[in-house]
Amino acid sequence: MTTAIVTxxxxxxxxxxxxxxxxxxxxxxxxxxxxxxxxxxFYGPLFALMEANSRTYDTFAEKYARPDGRDPFRHDTxxxxxxxxxxxxxxTTVFIPNIQAMRDVVVTKAxxxxxxxxxxxxxxxxxxxxxxxxxxxxxxxxxxxxxxxxVSFPGRELREYIRDRFARLKSEQARLLGHSRAGNWWxxxxxR
Length: 192
Fold this sequence. Notes:
192 residues
């Protein structure tokens, strides 16, 4: 009888260990799926759009820099009509579509946020886009009195937020995949 109890006890322990291991693997897989979705549908697109927009703006600012190195909108002397015309071209062709795409990611994929509440930088981005849509609508009517959004772009805060969350999720993804050298690519990217 003791042999039967030991056998049943060992079988139960084996079943329990298998069940707990399966549960742990299922939870890990669900976590990995969530992180992958956050990266592919939210933070990845935001990261790519932010970087593209930032680099394109740097190119604009460099191309149209004043002799002291500042761009026409960050200068004591107001932009010329030619500079404003160039700005409208760059804004309507590149900058506004990029920030609209960023806003669309935020609005349609907010369920993938890491945080419980919408971060201020993302709310400011959405307001900035709306402000530029009004400005662009006026341009389409031939009204060139305004050349910037009515709401400022949260550039530094937004870039820091997106980079931080993207890096955090990439590290979590690597951990869930069992990789130990997750941060190396990020270190190289930041040193660009």
